[in-house]
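Sat 14:20. Reprocessing the chain from the morning session after the first attempt stalled halfway. Input below, unchanged.
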Amino acid sequence: MRKFYSLVLLIIAVASSLTVSAQGLKGFKLKNGLSVYIWEDSTKNDVFGLVGVKVGAVNDPEDLTGLAHYLEHMMFKGTQSISSLNWEKEKPLYEQIITKYDEMANEPDPVKKEAISLEINKLTVEAAQYTAPNEFAGLTENMGGKMLNAMTGYDETMYFSSFPPSQLYKWLDLNSERFINPVFRAFQPELETVYEEFNRSQDMQGSLQQDFMLKHIFPGHPYSRSVLGLQEHLKNPRLGGLVDFYNNWYVPENMVLILVGNVKLKEAMGLINDRFGRLEAQKSPERKSYPEMEIKGRTEYSAKMGDFPTLRLAFKGVPTGHTDELALTICVNMLSNRNRTGLLDKLSLSGDVLGADAGLINFKEQGRILILGIPYYDVNQRRFESIKSLEKMLLAEISKIQKGEFDKELFNSVKATLIRDFDLSFESSYNKAQKILSTFICNEDISNVLNYKEKVKTISIDQVKAIANKYFNKNYIALNYQPGKAPKAEKLSKPKYDPINPERGVISQYAEKFRKLPVRKVDPVYEKFDAVQVKKVNERSRLFYTQNKENAIFTLTLKYGVGTHEMPQLQYAVD
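Finished this time. Tokens:
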């Protein structure tokens, strides 16, 4: 009985800091500053778990870009307990490796650099005999975990996986343990993975165009560079810098735990506090601020990259969570949307241009509105129409929004589609978690997620016209891409190292204890196949249908008894 009373008191103590409770979503903070959100959904047969950190490529040191992305990779390598067979013997080797990386980064002589690199390789090979490789992924898989992955953005880093409800305690134990004394072992082979990512990006014209665009529309801000980091920094990594970066930014106050799916608040709160409450409280570091770019008049930048001429117009937009964001989203969708009903979409459908599109870049600190156009190709004259005439056409369609010269049905259909897409997205636990994470990263009110549909409904045509006139002005950047091969950065060469051969078939003491952790019995939720109704449509077709209990959206899928295996050209017909 004493254990029961202590658990009740613990739940009451944690619940006293509840900050949100609506539509199945509950939120609270632990004493160490960690934010927690639980979205109960008993219709799901699993739980989606995510740990987000309010740090990304924006926070990379200016002389060590790419650290946030490197760190995301290294967070799968284990800790002083996970993947560790003998930390006492591994530790001195690990400390030497850290020192050697910093020494190599400071060494200007290429020959001496190479010699230090080979020393690191020998130390890494020696240290590998004291580790169990890929143990974090293995333990996740063994408890039925799926979708194990991570992602680094400009403003955030996230780690996630789904798991059976019965494995809640195990998931919490493993995913909190990974943030306690992490060890960035096997840094050397992970460098090769990041190098390969960078080299691949240099072979893709789209990636090079993206880099060119970001450089010119976000000058003076870290948004102007790739999340992967700059080449000169990738070639001179500092493992010591990675350790410092983790210690500074990966603190509970700067982190969020999100659970969505078949999980109960009362059952989870005490367990979360028990496991994630172990993370040591620490203040988040000060964030560097950057001035907003001033665009004066039309500024053009040209480059030869790609197979055909392309024009991008970039207007100043808004950061995520801005009061104008929703009206601006509706405005941009009236220009172009995935239903292809926008004003710019009609230019493509009518053949006036080869392609036209509009979209938003909404980061935490700044935003841009992007208008894209590909000029019409005259087959008879074998040439593209001029970029100048293309730009006039694009701006003419924008002016129709500003003047209100559009069908009201377009406005209503865009709003209806946004609401429908919102409802559809909420069928996915992953999407729910993403929306919560975005509000945490951008310091938004969670009600922006919960009341999204109501806010969409309140936006008026007059608001959209006002927004169009406010943001689509004469101050913008024109990016003129002409056919040609873009200059590529020198590829990062992979050093020739001795292979690392860690022990196979061995597990750490942590893994042995982990396998014995308690598992709660949860009755599985089975699909009720008798709820599927079948109706004969004709001699060759049948309709299978069920009631959608998730929302009021009707979805119809037509499946034909032939595909691209028998008729490869069908893929072109579908397009």
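The first helix runs from residue 2 to 15.
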